[in-house]
Amino acid sequence: MKGTIMRPAFRAPLASVLAAAAAAFALAGCGAVVSAAPSTSSAAASAPAPASPNPSASAAGGAGAGGAATPGTTPSSSPAPAELKTYTFPNGHVSFKYPTGWKVELFTGGGSPSESATATVVDASGTEQATVYSGRAADGVSHPVTRTVYESVPVPGLAAQPAPAAHYAFYVDRMDGNATYRMHLAAGAPKSGQGSALDGIIRAGDGVILADVKFIENPFANDAAAKSWLAGAEGQALKALLLSISYK
Predict the structure, then answer these.
(1) Closest CA to 79 of 54, 44, 60, 51
(2) What percent of the chain has pLDDT over 70?
(3) What pLDDT is stored for residue 143 in this prediction?
(4) How far is Cα 87 from Cα 98, in angstroms, rounded to an integer?
(5) CA distance 28 to 177
(6) DSSP line for 35-97
(7) Which of 18, 29, 23, 13 is closest to 137 using CA atoms?
(8) Among 166, 205, 206, CA closest to 186
(9) Residues forming a β-bridge with 94
(10) Chain-centre distance of CA 38, in angstroms?
(11) Residues near 79 by beta carbon (within 8 Å), at least 6 away in sequence
């Protein structure tokens, strides 16, 4: 889906390092968008509100979707709380919370009932912010990287699922001088240093879950800019979305 407001090169389809999620999403085959912004009740929550869709305002504030945050800056105060909605996949097992004012579009695979579906989360400006996949199978890829981890936290709603435990993770992988930033669900806690790219395939029930924030390959000028974005409203809203994913 294309955004209604064009922003300076900050959000775009997943980078090549997200081949795991892309391969999973391909399982949807020849399906179609079947729903948008399902009717669900809103609930007060402490997660922050989405960032302003105004690029100049976001850049001036040091974080947000308008572009990379100013290196070394952090917001002067905590982001304001937001109202959240709950989205539940048609299978009734996988759900997550997202800010009111954003919407969810669902793409399902073939068959009846479908065994795979991808939920795309779109912000108030029409920009695709994240994708969550629930299905039967997925493929992973791995290659050597040097990783710097900003945050890694277990996901409470997936704690009962098979090991390795699902973690919300935000980090940067460097390979051949190139930096690839990722915020997604990781299978196990990522660690800084030399390692392999993470596939992000979470085993849940008799299927799998994948969830990724949609970055371009180089959305931040440096680590300081990435941390500043994370501390802002948009970074915190997307972190809260990933941490809210659950399976029942």
Answers:
(1) 51
(2) 63
(3) 85
(4) 8
(5) 34
(6) EES----EEEEEEEPPPPS-HHHHHHHT-STTSPPPTT---SSPPPEEEEEEEE-TTSSEEEE
(7) 23
(8) 166
(9) 247
(10) 19
(11) 48, 49, 232, 233, 236, 237
